[in-house]
Design a protein that fits this description.
Layout (H helix, E strand, L loop, with lengths): L3 E6 L8 H10 L3 E6 L9 H8 L17 H8 L2 E7 L1 H8 L6 H8 L3 E6 L3 H5 L1 H12 L3 E2 L3 E4 L5 E5 L3 H11 L2
């Protein structure tokens, strides 16, 4: 039986790597359902991720379902793992404080599946006291993290906040699914 992965994609320049992550998970035999924030669609299109996942991409919590089932809870219930890659500082803050105001955060808060987060943001944002407190809080709650790493950032400089390598994200997902 295929493992069910929810891939959360948030508003970060690293969202373009969600295509490689989706393809990698599929090669590993996983069924991938993508949930995008509205901000993510500025960096990668739902059509790209739908084509790579072979599944409908979800972004609107209030879209009329084809059958009666609240979207966020039905997605949450079927997941073996929720992987958020890239995960923005915004989503980290929402999760750490129980804020559910979009489909992705509602799905994550509703699931009993393991959660793996691959942060991606500017180094100043990553080092911010509140972001670090949010990460600590999520780790203490059982959320798993992969990265970030030091690398080239969208602003042009090198710094901590670059999303982990796709291979490392895939390996962490595989490890959590055992």
């Amino acid at each position: 039986m295929k493992k069910e992965i929810i891939l959360g994609v948030t508003g970060s320049i690293a969202a373009y790597k969600a295509g490689d992550i989706t393809s990698g998970l599929r090669r590993m035999g996983m069924n991938v359902t993508v949930v995008m924030t509205g901000e993510a669609s500025h960096f990668i299109t739902p059509l790209t991720l739908q084509s790579l996942s072979c599944n409908k991409v979800f972004s609107d919590m209030f879209e009329a379902p084809l059958e009666w089932s609240p979207v966020h809870t039905s997605l949450a219930d079927k997941a073996n793992l929720v992987l958020i890659a890239p995960c923005s500082a915004n989503i980290l803050g929402k999760l750490a404080n129980g804020i559910c105001d979009d489909l992705l955060t509602c799905t994550i808060i509703s699931t009993k599946a393991k959660i793996l987060i691959a942060p991606a943001m500017n180094d100043n944002m990553y080092k911010n006291k509140f972001v670090q407190e949010n990460i600590k809080r999520l780790k203490e709650s059982g959320y798993e993290f992969v990265g970030p790493i030091k690398g080239r950032l969208a602003c042009g400089r090198e710094g901590m906040g670059h999303m982990a390598k796709v291979e490392d994200i895939l390996e962490a997902a595989k490890r959590l699914l055992k």
